[in-house]
Amino acid sequence: MSQNYKHFCISADCVLIKNNQVLLIKRTIKPFEGNWVLPGGHLEKEETIEEALQREVREETHLNLNDYQLINVYSEIDRDPRERTVSIAFLSQNFEGKLKGSSEGRELKWFSQNNLPNNIGFDHQEIIKDAFNLIN
Length: 136
Fold this sequence. Notes:
CATH superfamily: Nucleoside Triphosphate Pyrophosphohydrolase
Mean pLDDT: 93
Oligomer: single chain
Shape: globular
CATH architecture: Alpha-Beta Complex
Helix content: 10-25%
Low-confidence stretches: none
Number of helices: 2
């Protein structure tokens, strides 16, 4: 049974793929502290989902997206234990900048599709699978 959420959020998540590998961030905050996640986060009041996507990727990885495409919308009721969150997920294979972590995740690592870590937070494993299905 779902929780009685006080807030409803929209988030943008990004699957960054280079050389058939996906970039994951080892999360340093709750929920899913110590788990690997995609770069992403909540939409702010005065921005579009595309602006949120660009901002979150830049804040968490220091990379700039040159282009991206929609993967899908993820709306399972309990996908985020903090609050009711709907994620709009994007795929980018065209980005630039010098990779660097943030306060939310200092460790960043590229993983092959067949060698993903077991501890992936949220529903990000499903999002990653859907992204690879788009390009394969």
